Every structure is written in C-alpha cells, then in structure tokens.
C-alpha cells in the first residue's frame, strides 16, 4: 500500500493527531519521555520501573548525547558515525563504569532509551525505537507499506545487532522524506496512526498446530493473570503451534500450554534473539521434573536428562506430545480440551521427489479439480517486464491477462519442493510479492510438498496473515470450496 496523504492529513489535523504529535515534539523532561515509552509499550515496565527509566534517559543524555549539541546540521553519514561512536565507547558516569567498552550485548537493552535522546537532539535522522519485544509490529508496518527492511544480523554479532537500529533509521529517514513527514509526525505515524489503522483489519485465522515446542521460565514475575505476551522460542515456530511451558525452580514443573500467535520472530534487539507472541493459555496439572524423571518414557528423554537446560525452543516429537498428554490425563485432566497435533495424509499414489512433481501431481491436479486449466485459466512461467526490459517468470499466474502493455494476474502462485523453515518461506514470500506487485495480484499462494499458504491483499500483503491448507485437508469438501473461493477472487 502506498502512503495515503489524504487519510494522514485527516489524522494529523484531528485533535488526537495534534495531541500525539505534540507529545513527541514538546517533551522537556525525562519523565515525559518515560511516559511515551510506557504509553506506547507498557511491557517496558516488566524490566524497568519509572525511576530507573528516567535515570537511564538522563545518563545517556548527560554523558553521551549532549556531547554533540554543538554540531549543526550533520549529514546522514555523520549521524551514523555519531551513533556508532556512542555505542562503541561504553558509558562511564563520573568514576563508575556503567557499560564497558565493547559490551554490545548489554547495549542492546539500552537502544530504546538511547534512541529517545538521539531523536530529541537529531530528530531528522533518529526515530524513537519503542518496539521493545514487538519487532513483529514493525514488520507489519513495513509489510503494509511495502518497505524493505534490512537483513537482520546473525545472533552472535552483537555490534551489528546494535547497529541495526541505525540501518532502520536510514530506511525510515527515506520513508519520512519521501512522504514529507516531520520527525515528530513520523513518531506519531508509527506509534499511533498505524496501530489504529492495522487494528481495523481482520485478524488472520490461527492454523491447526503442526508442531509442539518446549518453552521455559517463571511466569510468576508477570503476574498470575498474565495471559499473553512475548516469549523466547524457536525461530522455526509457526503460528498455531503448541508451546509447553516448563516453569523453572522453585516450581520445576510443566504448568500450562500456550498457542503461538505469530511465526517465530527474530528480534535483533532482544538478548534471546528468537521469540514468538503467545496467548490462549491453558493451565494443566503440574507435571514436575521428578514426575518426568520417574516416567519410563521421559526418563530417557535428552531434555529431561539435562533437567530442562536449554528448554526454550526445544522441539517435541509427536510421540513426545502424546506421552505428555498421557501423563496429564493420569492426573485426572480432560485432555480432549487440549490442542492436538495435525498431520494430514497426502493423497494416494503420489511420488513427490522434486518441485515439478509438486506442480503437476498436487497443484495442477487441484486447479483442474476446481475447473481451471493451463493456457485457459492459468499459465506457467508467464514472462513479465521488470525494470529495463528485464523479464521474470513467476511459476503460475491464475486468472491472467497477458496483453501488450497490460500484464495482470489475480492470483500469483510460487511452487517449491520443500520450504524447510521460516527463512525459506519468507524468501519465497518476498519473491512472490515482488511478482504480485508487478501483476497487481490480489492473492499470493506459496506451496510445497506439504501444504499451500495463501496470502490475501487487503491494502497490502502481510507476511503474518495467511491461511495454511495441508494437501490432505482438501479431501474435505468444505476446505476444498473454501480454498477455491479464495483463489476465484472475482
């Protein structure tokens, strides 16, 4: 979706918009900045109280950022050098070393606070980073406006992860200047305008779970009523997956199950790097570590033998999950209320050994069953113009027009042999989206030997909003017709 100047003008001239913009532009005290952090990301209070936040903001201003007050109108490159210098030289307050030189791991925690002070001094280049534990929301914004975010650095490269904030600053500097936003308008746009806009969109369905994972840690610190939030997980977690929560000492027991609300998120600014958003908590009778150690099946399990060390993101096999349900049932709990792993069988007489087998034996078979045929309703390897006469060839264009100077397809389909992980799915999504933008497609389909993933354009394509269909599900008439209606897309 392109930036809509009309709706933005309505917002910024409204009383709400004016108040939000002024809250970023008129801040004069650190308590006002703390209030902005808390207002737009209340979870920050999970780790820092009001006094500590104000103290950190003051320290970064007085002992770091204010050193550059006398620099007038630095260039973009100079601003980047300022940022790199600040994060690379530690933090000393009088005779006390608060942050050691080169401790980029700890520096990650301070990026939101440093960003507030840099935004105050050099707002042209720096925006306040308030997406603590909510990096997936920034990705939603980027998807909505088809903004290409920079590649995320690898987990051990803590300096590059700190520098990633500057990479984001450059991206949103370009977005801001292209759309004639002031720095304070950009902040209001990101943290008030966009959240309200995206909240009006219908949330995608949660797929049936295909995998269970262990996660771990005490919930107590979050409050007994804590039922949703961000948690460390495996980056291969899929939306809908089951998360088995082992609470560490002094509880030392499995206490509840969660359902992942988003695919695994790599967040460059969290120490644990890989996380997911969890909800739908179901409390179960406590299955203690001693219970598991005494159980014939789990006593041999490698994670139990390690006493749950490295628990977050540990995958469970279907047998592991079945055996865990057995133990929960033995405690008198009705396991019919718990989610079940879904593993559909593929249609009979298949021999899938390459991408072309996926196309012919699965995709084309079902397209034909829906009444659509090659060179009439869909075309393979449709040549389309991209850039200076360069031609690209998406795998399938369904409901297409291929006329001179008019290339359109309502549905764009990319087939792979096997998308083994979230990274491969994301790469396929980005490739398909680039084709779909050229062809003005309203639906993207990714498929491999296991399933189809369907994305529908609302105002833009959102990589987190999709419906997944395992091939075996299409033997169900309701599912078959549901998919057909999505692909019909009149």
Which descriptors apply to this entry?
15 helices, about 500 residues, single chain, alpha+beta, 17 strands
Q: How would you characterize this protein structure?
A:
With 490 residues, this protein is α+β, with helices and mostly antiparallel strands. 39% of the residues lie in helices and 18% in strands. The strands form four sheets. Strands 3, 4, 5, 6, 7, 8 and 9 form a seven-stranded mixed beta sheet that branches. It has a six-stranded mixed beta sheet with strand order 10-13-14-15-16-17, sandwiched between helices. The protein has a two-stranded antiparallel ribbon with strand order 1-2. Strand 13 (396-403) and strand 14 form a beta hairpin. Helix 3 packs across helix 4 (50-63) and helix 6 (104-121) packs parallel to helix 8 (158-178). The protein is globular and about 75 Å long. The two termini are 20 Å apart.
Q: Helical region count?
A: 15
Helix % is 25-40%
User: Based on DSSP secondary structure assignment, what is the total number of beta strands?
Assistant: 17
Structural class: alpha+beta
Give the termini distance in whole angstroms: 20 Å
Output mean pLDDT.
90
Shape designation? globular
Strand content: 15-25%
Low-confidence stretches: none
Measured on Cα atoms, how large is the radius of gyration?
25 Å
Largest sheet: 7 strands, mixed
């Amino acid at each position: 979706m392109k930036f809509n100047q009309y709706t933005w003008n309505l917002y910024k001239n409204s009383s709400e918009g004016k108040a939000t913009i002024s809250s970023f532009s008129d801040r004069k005290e650190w308590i006002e900045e703390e209030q902005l952090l808390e207002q737009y990301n209340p979870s920050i209070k999970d780790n820092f109280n009001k006094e500590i936040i104000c103290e950190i903001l003051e320290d970064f201003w007085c002992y770091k950022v204010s050193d550059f007050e006398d620099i007038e109108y630095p260039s973009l490159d100079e601003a980047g050098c300022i940022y790199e210098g600040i994060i690379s030289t530690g933090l000393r307050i009088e005779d006390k070393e608060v942050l050691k030189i080169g401790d980029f791991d700890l520096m990650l925690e301070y990026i939101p606070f440093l960003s507030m002070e840099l935004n105050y001094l050099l707002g042209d280049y720096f925006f306040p980073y308030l997406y603590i534990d909510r990096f997936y929301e920034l990705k939603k914004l980027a998807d909505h406006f088809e903004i290409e975010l920079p590649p995320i650095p690898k987990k051990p490269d803590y300096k590059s992860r700190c520098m990633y904030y500057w990479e984001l600053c450059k991206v949103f500097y370009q977005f801001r200047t292209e759309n004639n936003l002031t720095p304070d308008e950009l902040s209001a746009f990101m943290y008030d305008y966009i959240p309200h806009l995206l909240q009006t969109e219908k949330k995608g369905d949660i797929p049936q779970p295909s995998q269970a994972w262990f996660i771990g840690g005490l919930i107590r610190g979050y409050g007994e009523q804590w039922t949703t939030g961000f948690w460390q997980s495996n980056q291969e977690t899929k939306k809908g997956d089951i998360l088995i929560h082992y609470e560490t000492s002094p509880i030392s027991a499995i206490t509840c199950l969660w359902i992942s609300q988003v695919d695994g998120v790599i967040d460059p600014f969290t120490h644990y790097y890989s996380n997911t958003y969890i909800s739908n908590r179901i409390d179960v009778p406590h299955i203690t570590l001693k219970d598991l150690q005494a159980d014939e099946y789990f006593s041999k399990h490698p994670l139990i033998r390690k006493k749950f060390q490295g628990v977050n993101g540990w995958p469970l096999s279907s047998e592991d999950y079945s055996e865990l349900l057995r133990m929960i049932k033995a405690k008198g709990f009705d396991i019919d209320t718990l989610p079940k792993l879904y593993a559909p069988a593929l249609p009979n007489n298949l021999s899938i050994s390459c991408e072309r087998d996926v196309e012919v034996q699965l995709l084309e078979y079902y397209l034909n069953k829906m009444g659509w045929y090659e060179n009439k309703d869909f075309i393979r390897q449709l040549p389309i113009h991209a850039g200076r006469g360069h031609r690209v060839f998406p795998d399938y264009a369904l409901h297409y027009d291929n006329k001179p100077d008019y290339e359109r397809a309502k549905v764009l389909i990319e087939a792979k042999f096997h998308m083994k992980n979230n990274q491969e799915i994301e790469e396929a999504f980005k490739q398909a989206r680039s084709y779909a933008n050229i062809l003005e497609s309203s639906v993207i389909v990714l498929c491999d030997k296991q399933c189809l993933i369907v994305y529908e354009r609302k105002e833009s394509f959102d990589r987190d909003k999709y419906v997944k269909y395992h091939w075996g599900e299409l033997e169900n008439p309701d599912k078959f017709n549901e998919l057909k209606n999505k692909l019909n897309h009149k």
